[in-house]
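#structure-requests
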Amino acid sequence: MGACLKLALFDLDHTLIPMDSDYEWGEFTIALGWCDATEFKRRNAEFFEQYRAGTLDIHDYVRFATQAIREQGTINSIAAHARFMSEIVQKAIKNQALELVDQHRAAGDELVIVTATNEFVTRPIADAFGVSELIAVELERDAQGHLTGEIKGTPSAREGKVTRMEQWLAARSLGWDDVHTTFYTDSMNDLALLEKVTDPVATNPDPRLRALALERGWRILDLF
């Protein structure tokens, strides 16, 4: 790594994949019979709308979203996620998203997925794109290695994405001035990071982000 390092940063949900992976994982656990369908759907929909509105309390959401995997345990949860990948996620990944990532890989850029979804859900998805560097919501574990339902460190959501990226850079003895950064995202929730990077790209943008991108002259990319 050197002073001319180029980074390609990607949000995940609705940016590289045409879905909200956390929401769809919740729906998948309903299909498995892991939770009460009516109550889970109601709360999951509420949290999803809060996320879209930018009002989500991510700590409350992570407690809710990890309840089923905490109750089911590691072995059952990993096996279920493998099914989730093959039955839902892999079928949804578009060639144009894979090609975008491959273009940056071929150019020699360092690839990083920066997502507000937790690491349990997103690590296998990042692997499917061949991206080893994942900045996701980290989940706290107790002394026995079991998930507690709490978040470890700063959650990579909203302004937290900037904080986590700065930690990632600092671990490599780098700062923002040492790198050229391109960031792809669909959401106004990522405004703080969009304003920090060298090259912000509104990707499959929501209406508010599309309007802001047009106003500021940011690149707009409609992948799907």
